[in-house]
Structures are given as structure tokens and as C-alpha cells.
């Protein structure tokens, strides 16, 4: 029995190798034309001995064993591929975080080329296929880096710009349909409250950002107009929200009702337990770190 088991294992290994190397037609049992004609005649006695030998259960390749071996090999290959992807994702994430840490949220543009190269590589390894349905998305996210000059406040007077030692936060709750942006300036906090909803393909242009010259949030900003980037992916409503801004509150004191034109689009292109990558319809990129599952400020 031990010898039979060893022989079966050997034949399984040989079969796997043959399955990988031989043409599909041969594996499927389709005869290769002309082979019988080139074989030398075989005597009836020898043919009989060959038939009896092939019928020996110790030698015959058991098809269920082969199927199980092929399945096991497939699972092993898939597991190895998943492990490779996980390791690659962890490496890219570490490199990206190191680059954004030195960028002052994007004010120092020396890191932009490096970050811009790592960004799509990490997007390609997104572990969350449906970010809007994931519980990981709900909560407060701290902005680590962006290409948006409006959010960084680079064109504003110094007292209106976000202070460096306080976070710029974005709260998202897709299930509740609400969002909030919060920044801290020397004169007090600026807050934007908004409604969000999953964005279907037919609604893309309806939510294109039209905030080009609205309030001091856009003062001095050198950005492309809304609609520069419109995601075209299957299942758009699983990754992307339409944003309708409702109230702008300046310096924690002055609420201003947003006009109907205050809209935007936000796509979540990468999401794990503590890191999010997003794209806006102006073509801006965002790297954010989760700080709380609720509103933290």
C-alpha cells in the first residue's frame, strides 16, 4: 500500500507537469494525428500484458486524486499570489506615508513626483472592492497630502490659511448621507457641511464641481475647473459619491447657506483600515489617514 501511494504521488506530480506543458487537445484526449501510423506493430501477447499492467490499481492514475491535486495546486498558487500582493501593498503604503510625511500636506512640492508615482500603484492593489459599503469608510479622516491648492489655502492671506499644527479633517458617513470638511485657521475653524449620495453613471455631470469662485475657500486657488476628472469605471456607485454642499461656516461664527451650484464628486480609489486614497472631479489627489470612526472634532 505504501508503494502504491508513493507511485500515485509520483504520477500526480508527473501529470501536473504534463498538464502545464502539453497542448490542450492532448490533455483533453483528442488523438494527435499520425502517431498510430508511426508506432511499430505490437503483438497481441505484448498488448495483453500492457493492458493487464495498465489495469493494475497500483499504477493507474486515479482521476479524483488528480483533480484534488490540481485543485490544491490552484489554491496554493492563489494563496502565494495573495501573499505577494499583500507584501507589495505594505511596501508601497510604507513608502507613500514616508513621502507624504515630508511634504507638509503638499505645500512642499518636492515630493509630488514621488507621491504621484506611488499613488496609482497602490490604487491598483486596493483591497476593498466596494468602499461605500465598507464600515471602514465611516469616520474622520486627516488629510496627509493633496494636490489641491484651494484646500491647502496657498492663495489666501496668512490669517485665513490652515495652521500647520492642526489637522485638516474630512468626515464621511455614506450610510447616513453626510460629510463634513474642517480646517483650523488663526481666526477660528472653517467648516463645510454637505450631503453625499452614491453616484450613478447618469449623474456624473450633474455633480461636477462649480465652486470656482465661491467664498474665501477658493481665493487664489490655481486649479482646473470641475469635470477635469470624471471616473469611468463599472460599479461607479460603489466607489464614488456626489457631494452637495449645504452650509459654509467661517471662523466658527458665520454660517453661510451654500448655493445650488456648490457640488462636487469624490471617488474612493483605495481603502483599508487606516488609509484612504481619493480623487476629485478637478483632477486632485488626496491621501488621508483615519483618526476616528466618529466625528473627532
UniProtKB/TrEMBL annotation:
Segments traversing the membrane: 65-84
Domain Plastid lipid-associated protein/fibrillin conserved: 91-288
Cellular component GO terms, alphabetical: plastid
One Pfam match: PAP_fibrillin
Organism: Symbiodinium necroappetens
Main localization category: plastid
Protein name in UniProt: PAP4 protein
Position of the signal peptide: 1-29
InterPro entries according to UniProt: PAP, PAP/fibrillin_dom
Keyword annotations of the record: Membrane, Plastid, Signal, Transmembrane, Transmembrane helix
Domain of life where this protein originates: Eukaryota
Compartments where found: Plastid
Amino acid at each position: 500500500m505504501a508503494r502504491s501511494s508513493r507511485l500515485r504521488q509520483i504520477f500526480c506530480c508527473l501529470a501536473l507537469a504534463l498538464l502545464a506543458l502539453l497542448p490542450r487537445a492532448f490533455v483533453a484526449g483528442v488523438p494527435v494525428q499520425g502517431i498510430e501510423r508511426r508506432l511499430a506493430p505490437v503483438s497481441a501477447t505484448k498488448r495483453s500484458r500492457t493492458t493487464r499492467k495498465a489495469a493494475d490499481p497500483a499504477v493507474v492514475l486515479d482521476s479524483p486524486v488528480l483533480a484534488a491535486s490540481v485543485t490544491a495546486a490552484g489554491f496554493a498558487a492563489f494563496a502565494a499570489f495573495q501573499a505577494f500582493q499583500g507584501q507589495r501593498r505594505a511596501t508601497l503604503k510604507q513608502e507613500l506615508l514616508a513621502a507624504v510625511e515630508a511634504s507638509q500636506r503638499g505645500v512642499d512640492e518636492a515630493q509630488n513626483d514621488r507621491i504621484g508615482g506611488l499613488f496609482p500603484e497602490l490604487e491598483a492593489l486596493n483591497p476593498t472592492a466596494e468602499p461605500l459599503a465598507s464600515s471602514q469608510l465611516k469616520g474622520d479622516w486627516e488629510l496627509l497630502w493633496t494636490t489641491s491648492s484651494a484646500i491647502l489655502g496657498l492663495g489666501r492671506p496668512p490669517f485665513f490659511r490652515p495652521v500647520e499644527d492642526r489637522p485638516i479633517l474630512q468626515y464621511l458617513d455614506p450610510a447616513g448621507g453626510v460629510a463634513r470638511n474642517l480646517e483650523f485657521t488663526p481666526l477660528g475653524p472653517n467648516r463645510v457641511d454637505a450631503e453625499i449620495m452614491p453616484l450613478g453613471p447618469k449623474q456624473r455631470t450633474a455633480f461636477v464641481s462649480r465652486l470656482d469662485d465661491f467664498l474665501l475657500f477658493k481665493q487664489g486657488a490655481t486649479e482646473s475647473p470641475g469635470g477635469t476628472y470624471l471616473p469611468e469605471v463599472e460599479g461607479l456607485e460603489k466607489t464614488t459619491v456626489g457631494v452637495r454642499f449645504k452650509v459654509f461656516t467661517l471662523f466658527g461664527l458665520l454660517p453661510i447657506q451654500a448655493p445650488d451650484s456648490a457640488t462636487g464628486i469624490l471617488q474612493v480609489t483605495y481603502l483599508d483600515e487606516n488609509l484612504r486614497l481619493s480623487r476629485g472631479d478637478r483632477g486632485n489627489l488626496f491621501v488621508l489617514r483615519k483618526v476616528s470612526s466618529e466625528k473627532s472634532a
